[in-house]
Amino acid sequence: MPDSTHALRALDVSKTFGGVRAIKGVSLDIAWGERISVIGTNGAGKSTLFNAIAGVFPVTSGTIELFGEDATRLPTAARAKRGLARTFQTSRLFEGLTSAENVYVALGGTEFSGHLLRSSRRTPERWLRVEELLDRVGLSGRGPMIVADLSHGEQRQLELAMALALQPKLLMLDEPAAGFSPAERQHLSALLRDLPRDITLLLIEHDMDIALAVADRVVVMHDGEKILEGSPADIRASERVREIYLGGSIDDAA
Ligand SMILES: Nc1ncnc2c1ncn2[C@@H]1O[C@H](COP(=O)(O)OP(=O)(O)OP(=O)(O)O)[C@@H](O)[C@H]1O
């Protein structure tokens, strides 16, 4: 059971790379089960905030509490062990394996060494779980396909299945719709909305439609700072957001 009211509390977090202040005093609380989208134009600091929470690098100042525990100095693996799962902008799949085998490995198939058929006899329940996860992300029937033969969209869906295999408390998705067709975007949006409500979700997304459709609350970053947060309706109606997107890359507002 959660031992705090929040899955995540980031307090006054800053990160400087050389002379660049990528994020400046950003605070962000995410309640258990809440779904947050972080939006902002190129260079706003979204990825830096995301990576700071995931523990990819140490923050310059500020604190990060995960699941009620100070995680500011915890390495990525320790954060993952406590229940944080993330996807990446670039694919981390095993391209020569099938979809099902990828999910199997993500489920903790530590005995995996190219002998999946042999291990499958020992772990039929794990293969059932693989099928469930593939179904959940809309990849029913794709289990036997080699990853390299999946479409880009399907590969991202597979990554989502692998993240879900970890039964995360906090699922962090880094631009999951990058490179998607309009149809794939709609599909992803529906998939994310259908995720179990007990998974806390932090989504960084360029695509406004997905960001607003999936989130309970939206955080707007600009120039390294959190400048606004509110409901999707608040954000949609915000003149400030409109100005920022028009002043930045108009593609971002698409
Ligand atoms: N490793 C790094 N080294 C130096 N500067 C960095 C590094 N990572 C990010 N920055 C800088 O920090 C600022 C914020 O970048 P960040 O990638 O967090 O923005 P973003 O909102 O994710 O942008 P995008 O939407 O383009 O991915 C930018 O000015 C960027 O150039």
From TrEMBL:
Keyword GTP-binding attached: no
Keyword Translocase: no
A single Gene Ontology CC term: plasma membrane
Residue ranges annotated for the ABC transporter domain, each copy included: 8-248
An example Gene Ontology molecular-function term: L-phenylalanine transmembrane transporter activity
Organism encoding this protein: Naasia lichenicola
Pfam families: ABC_tran, BCA_ABC_TP_C
Protein name according to UniProt: ABC transporter ATP-binding protein
SMART domains membership: AAA
